Amino acid sequence: MADDHMPQRSDRLGLTDDELALHRTVFASDALKDMVIVLSGGAGGIGRAIAWLFARLGAHLVVVGRNQGKLSALTSNMTAKGLQASACAADIRDADAVARLFDTVWQTHGRVDGLINSAGGQFPQPAIDFSVKGWNAVIDTNLNGTWYMMQTAARHWRDNKQPGNIVNIVVVTTHGLYGIAHSIAARSGVIGLSRSVAVEWAPLNIRVNCVAPGAIETEGWNVYAPEARAAYPRSNPMMRAGSPWNVAEACAYLASPSGAFVTGETLTVDGGGQLWGETWTTGKPAYFIDKDT
Ligand SMILES: CCCCCCC/C=C/C(=O)SCCNC(=O)CCNC(=O)[C@H](O)C(C)(C)COP(=O)(O)OP(=O)(O)OC[C@H]1O[C@@H](n2cnc3c(N)ncnc32)[C@H](O)[C@@H]1OP(=O)(O)O
Ligand SMILES: NC(=O)C1=CN([C@@H]2O[C@H](COP(=O)(O)OP(=O)(O)OC[C@H]3O[C@@H](n4cnc5c(N)ncnc54)[C@H](OP(=O)(O)O)[C@@H]3O)[C@@H](O)[C@H]2O)C=CC1
C-alpha cells in the first residue's frame, strides 16, 4: 500500500494487523535491533502501528493498556509473524501500577531503551460544560498518566546508569482544537514538561521529544459524532486524513539513532493543519459560519 494513500473506509477506521505487518517503511530492518521499548496505548490505532513498525525494525515491544484482551490479541498476531512482543496491562493513571510495570520489565529484560507514550484521549464537549469529573479524567489520563510513565522510566535509567529516550504522542496545541480544551491543556502540559526535562535529563543521557499528530484516522475517532469526523480530513491543506503509519515513522525517527541530536522537540505530523484549516470536534457554531458563502 502506498504510504500516503490510506483508503477511506466507512466500515472500519485505521489499519489492520495484516496491513501493518506488510506496510512499506523507509527504515532499515535492523534500525531498532534488540532495543526494548515500552509502549503505552499499544493496542490503540496509532500505538498498534508503532508496535508493528518498531518490532519489524528489531525491537522487543512491551505493549501497555488497560484491556488485557486487546493487548494479548495484538501480541499473538505479532509473535505469529516472528516478531518480539509482550503485553502488560496497567492503568497509567495509577502511579503504583506504573512502578510495578517498569519493575517487571526491567526484571524480565534487564533493560529498557525507549518509552513511547501513546495512551491518551478525551471526549468532545464545550469547555463551559466540563464537569469536575470529566476534566479530571482527561487531565489524569493525558498529563498525570504520561508523567508517571516518564518519571518512572527516567528513574530506572538513572539508577541503572543507562541512556534512554522518550516520545510522547500529544495533539497539535498551537491553535485551538475546539471542543477538547481539557486535552489541549493536558497536552500543552506534556509539551512543557518534555521541554523542561529534556534539559534536566540531558546529563542522564535521556532524550525527550513529542509527536503531535493531526487528523489520523483510527478507532479513537468513534468518540466523535459522524458529522465532526467527516470534516476532519478537510482540516488541513492536504485535504485528507493521515495514517497511523505516518505517526509511527515519526516516532521511529525520534526513537532511533536518526534522532540522536534531537531533544525537547515537538514533531508535528498534521498535513499542514497548523497553517490552514480548523477543527470543530463538537460541530461549528452558527456564529462562525459565513452566511454569504
Ligand atoms: C486536526 C484534526 C484532529 C481531529 C481529531 C481530534 C483530536 C484528537 C483525536 C484523538 O485523540 S482520537 C483518539 C483518542 N482516543 C480517545 O479519545 C478515546 C476515547 N476517550 C475516552 O476514553 C475518554 O474520553 C477518557 C477520558 C480519555 C477515558 O477516561 P475514563 O475511562 O476514566 O472515562 P469515563 O469513565 O468514560 O468518563 C469519566 C468522566 O468523564 C466525563 N465524560 C466522559 N465522556 C464524556 C462525554 N462524551 N461527554 C461528556 N462528559 C464525558 C464524565 O464526567 C465521566 O464520568 P461519568 O459521567 O461517566 O460518571
Ligand atoms: N487519532 C487522531 O486523530 C489523533 C490522536 N492523538 C493522540 O494520539 C494518541 C493515540 O491515539 P489513537 O491511537 O488514535 O487512540 P486510541 O483511542 O485508538 O488508542 C488510545 C489507547 O490508549 C489506551 N489508554 C487510554 N487510557 C489509558 C489508561 N488510563 N491507561 C493505559 N492505557 C490507556 C487505550 O487502551 P485501553 O482502553 O485498553 O486502556 C487505547 O488503546 C492519543 O493520545 C490521542 O489522543 C492526537 C491527535 C490526533
Automatic annotation (TrEMBL):
The protein's annotated pathway: Lipid metabolism
Top-rank lineage group of the source organism: Bacteria
E.C. numbers: 1.3.1.38
UniProt main location, coarse: other
Catalysed reactions listed for this entry: (2E)-dodecenoyl-CoA + NADPH + H(+) = dodecanoyl-CoA + NADP(+); a (2E)-enoyl-CoA + NADPH + H(+) = a 2,3-saturated acyl-CoA + NADP(+); (2E)-decenoyl-CoA + NADPH + H(+) = decanoyl-CoA + NADP(+); (2E)-hexenoyl-CoA + NADPH + H(+) = hexanoyl-CoA + NADP(+)
Molecular functions (GO terms): trans-2-enoyl-CoA reductase (NADPH) activity
Keyword Zinc assigned: no
Transmembrane region(s): none
Compartments in which it is found: Peroxisome
EC top class, as a word: oxidoreductase
Keyword annotations from UniProtKB, A to Z: Fatty acid biosynthesis, Fatty acid metabolism, Lipid biosynthesis, Lipid metabolism, NADP, Oxidoreductase, Peroxisome, Phosphoprotein
GO biological process: fatty acid biosynthetic process
The protein's assembly and partners: Interacts with PEX5, probably required to target it into peroxisomes.
Function, as annotated: Participates in chain elongation of fatty acids. Catalyzes the reduction of trans-2-enoyl-CoAs of varying chain lengths from 6:1 to 16:1, having maximum activity with 10:1 CoA. Has no 2,4-dienoyl-CoA reductase activity.
Family statement: Belongs to the short-chain dehydrogenases/reductases (SDR) family.
Protein name, entry field: Peroxisomal trans-2-enoyl-CoA reductase
Organism: Bradyrhizobium macuxiense
